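Q: How would the structure tokens look for this protein?
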Amino acid sequence: MSSSPATPYARLIAPRRTLVSCVPAYVVRSTPGASGPGFNHYPATPLCSVSWQLRGSTALVVDGAAAHDLVAHAGEAIFCGPQPAPWTTWNPGGAHFFVVLFYPDALHALSGVDMAAQVGQVAPAGERLGAPWQALTAALAALPSDTARAALVDDFLDRRWQTVRGQAGLERGVLGDWVRRLAVQAASSGMGRSARVAERRVKAWAGLPMRTLLRMGRAEQALLAARAEQADGKISWADVAADAGYADQSHLTRETRALTGLSPAALAYVMAHDESYWMYRIWS
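A: Here is the predicted structure in token form.
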């Protein structure tokens, strides 16, 4: 994606083919010309992430204010666990950060981190993941482009992932596909195959219960369908709800509010007009 130096931009970079069952995408966000504060709004998600702050700083917003004890400055990396509710960060000025998104069961296999203990957590990446990730931070900062950073992370993860990938399952694509695959794997793994045992396995691997993962997958499906309808004209939310498997439009509205903080119509509007909802826009 091309951009003038003063224009904020965000983009996704695909991981190496051998990593698609581990990393859904790399995310780049840059606000090079920003002279004032900027917000970044994110939905509830089962995905984990590691975010490298390359320029500027980022603070977690808690109860409408920046939490100054949870700030990433240039040259630092932040780990985010699965997030059960929508959340927001704040950049006090121009910023550039590079993010690796992980399927939580994949990161569990790579690092041994207890995903259930990471739900809702935001912390220094080295504290959660260890010294090799700290070393990677310095190497990323020295590179000239985000394409080069993606290639470096590909190399860092590839050998590790090929060693452990059998613990975390098969290749998968969008979130809904991953959730379905996870449910099948949990139900068929090991000696105990009851629904309760499968549920415990899912929570150990992904941090969140299956019912929450299914809600998130269905919401993603609805958002993608709405974007397709929006491109063709006016959105029929009743049709979107029915196609995504909701009981009715009110059901869609309740779950969209729970996962994003906004109604479906309000979310569609801010995605089109509010730069701080850039993550929703590029993901859909």
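Strands lie at 9-13, 26-30, 38-42, 48-55, 57-62, 65-73, 76-80, 87-91, 96-102, 122-124.

The chain has three domains: 9-165, 175-210, 215-283.

Upvote if useful.
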